[in-house]
Amino acid sequence: MNHVITITKSDGTKELFEEEKLANSLRRVGVKPESIDEIVDEVEATMRDSMTTKEIYTKAFSLIRKHSAPLAAKYSIRRAMMELGPDGFPYERFVARIFRMWGYETMTDQAVMGTCVDHEIDVVAWKGDSLAMVEAKFHNEFGMKSDLKVALYVKARFDDIAPNTFDFGGKKRKLTERWLTTNTKFTDKAIKYGECSHLNLLGWNYPTKGNLHEIIEQNGLHPITCLTTLTHQEKKDLVARDILVCIDLVGKPGVLNDIGIKVERTEGILTEAQIIIEEAK
């Protein structure tokens, strides 16, 4: 570029545009080297000072889609997570899906009794002698983070619950795992407190290894909202039927017919989902 460009991040802060960051994001989803250069050049040609990261993403997404719909779907995972909203219930079910992948049995939206008051728990998961309870914080905007106040509040709830014994899976269990998860990020103070207080944190890029982004990518748990071959309403209809990830859609292809998608479209939708899953293996 001939001059320095400042871009506006989702939280309103400014930073210098770095083409290498854009190139790396394209490289991570599998865009070929020759296509990366082409896409970066085209994005840069449209750049203006104070352009938002959302505008840059939209331009890059449209260019990637011309090369490969499945790669475009992978590029859109973070935004696709937000399409699970607007409320947090689908995200709770998505988190439960992760715990089931880890071998747990799960229930969502459970009322449990603490020492002082009762509590609504987003996800309860158990296996063996372990009992995990999870607070799932869903945000509709990238700039919103789960902060120290959230971590303190969640820790206090678990402290009230911890002395009691619960009957899940036909067995008496004590709380052994305390979790706070978010589809965005944690503030530094929330992370520091979580590490100090033994509160397990799971966010978009925390912990460094095994964060939400890595879990999705490495296990093929891409949300169906990332599929470019579905309309916004079709995505909502599938989420309402508890089809949250591509691997579950491929396992129940008949659900596409159930929501009124014609046969001539189903092959393309399932092919896109299958390619995404296979590339994660």
Outline the structure in words:
The chain is α/β, with parallel strands linked by helices and 281 residues long. It folds into three domains: 6-67, no CATH class; 89-218, Trna Endonuclease, Chain: A, domain 1, CATH 3.40.1350; 223-280, DNA polymerase, domain 1, CATH 1.10.150. 48% of the residues lie in helices and 20% in strands. It is built from 13 helices and twelve strands. A five-stranded mixed β-sheet has the order 4-5-6-10-12, with helices on both faces. A three-stranded mixed β-sheet has the order 2-1-3. A two-stranded parallel sheet has the order 7-11. Strand 8 and strand 9 form a beta hairpin. The relative contact order is 0.10. The model has no long low-confidence stretch (mean pLDDT 91).
List the defining traits of the structure above.
Trna Endonuclease, Chain: A, domain 1; 13 helices; single chain; DNA polymerase, domain 1; three-stranded mixed sheet; 281 residues; five-stranded mixed sheet; 48% helix; alpha/beta; 12 strands
- The domain tally reads 3
Number of helices: 13
Helix content: 40-55%
Specify the structural class: alpha/beta
Low-confidence stretches: none
What gross morphology would you assign?
A: globular
The helix/strand order is: EEHHEHHHHEEEEHEEEEHEHHHHH
Major sheet summary line: 5 strands, mixed
The CATH C-level class name of the largest domain: Alpha Beta
How far apart are the termini? 37 Å
Strand content: 15-25%
